[in-house]
Model the fold of this input.
Amino acid sequence: MKIMKFGGTSVGKPERMRQVAELITKEAEEKIVVLSALSGTTNALVEIGNSIARGEREEAKAQIEKLEKHYQHFVSGLVKENEFHNRAKSIIAEHFEFLNIILKISFSEALNKDILAQGELLSTKLFSVYLEENGIDHILLPALEFMSIDAHDEPQIGSIKVKLTQLLNLHKGRRLFITQGYICRNIRGEVDNLKRGGSDYTASLIAAAINASVCEIWTDIDGMHNNDPRVVKKTMPIEQLSFEEAAELAYFGAKILHPASIWPAQFYKVPVKLLNTMEPDAKGTLITGDAGSVGVKAVAAKDGIIGINIRSSRMLLAYGFLRKVFEVFEKYRTSIDMITTSEVAVSVTIDNEIHIKSILKELEPFGIVEIEKKYTIISVVGNEIAQTEDILKRLFAALTTVPIRMVSYGGSKHNISLLVHSDHKIKTLQLLNKGLFDLD
Ligand code: ADP
Ligand code: ASP
Ligand code: MG
Done:
């Protein structure tokens, strides 16, 4: 059985959805198809949630109306016959009625998650109507019945496996299953999600849970490129990546993959393919245990980084100092991306501000603590890159005009990370494109 995941742009227009139906019926292998919300929907739902949270109900109402019109227009282009059109319309009515009811309830984070879940529920149900109209036999598997996260927002892979297998067993002999990406239940049984871009994570978790033959991530570009195509003009697709390389790129900002989406496939040894819905015959990127080659493959950038610097003369010869520092971050479940130390100071970076106040308060007794915001981590990724001769020379030769705040080299064999101010991100990516890949 294989997994095919289609992102927002791949289902964002009626003709795209029709193309998805074609792609999933091309070959006979049994499959689970994971769909994102139509492109733009989750952003719109975030806005609706924000308006409700601010108490701007009229604004939220107008946003809901606008989104509903978009869906009505969408189904007019998707289904032809009256019977199916009516069915699609009643699905839209049901979900928008829910949003309108929420308008009248007092706002809570749990309610917000309910709002965010509407996109994937709508896309899969509408796709199911389209498949029915076209006589394509399938089962709609509700993700909320098997996808779950624990108290620390980590997927419960054991339980996902058991529940999904039970569900599939109820439909023995059926060959096509459709389910929602992104959405799940949390430890309290409430509707929750796997964070933005989470449909990739859903696909990989399902692939791991059922030991799929392959996990295909279908999107709007022909695979992982050597640089961020949103920032740099000339980029090229990479044919082969190891799980380690792909995981580093995803974690350090390559938006094509959710930051955590590689580990389930890696752990359960399921190959991942990145493919282009708009260009299905393009090679794309194959991700397996085999990197295929040694050396630099790609660069990626992760924004919103905060640097924390702790200076203390007491650190001099003091063993146990770093442990105490790390314990503070551990206590607040905040992971550190980069670290550099000197005899009198330690700098670390984190990627979220949720617990920053508490963290700073607890660090203060250790010395002088300073924070720097608006930083970007630029990661240069490639198999055994740290052992590649002259890599540092090429890297720094390319970046003579960019101030570099921190460097991380040697921690991972596949990654060299640089910390730069976010104002220098675009320039850094462009210079590296020329200096490392000879692309302008
Ligand atoms: P989907 O909606 O299918 O999940 P995403 O927008 O999440 O698609 O991811 C695909 C986008 O990721 C591409 O359109 C591209 O702009 C962006 N992207 C950023 N970095 C890379 C990269 N290194 N390689 C390919 N795409 C990238
Ligand atoms: N719809 C969700 C988002 O926009 C999940 C996804 O597309 O992967 O973040
Ligand atoms: Mg995505």
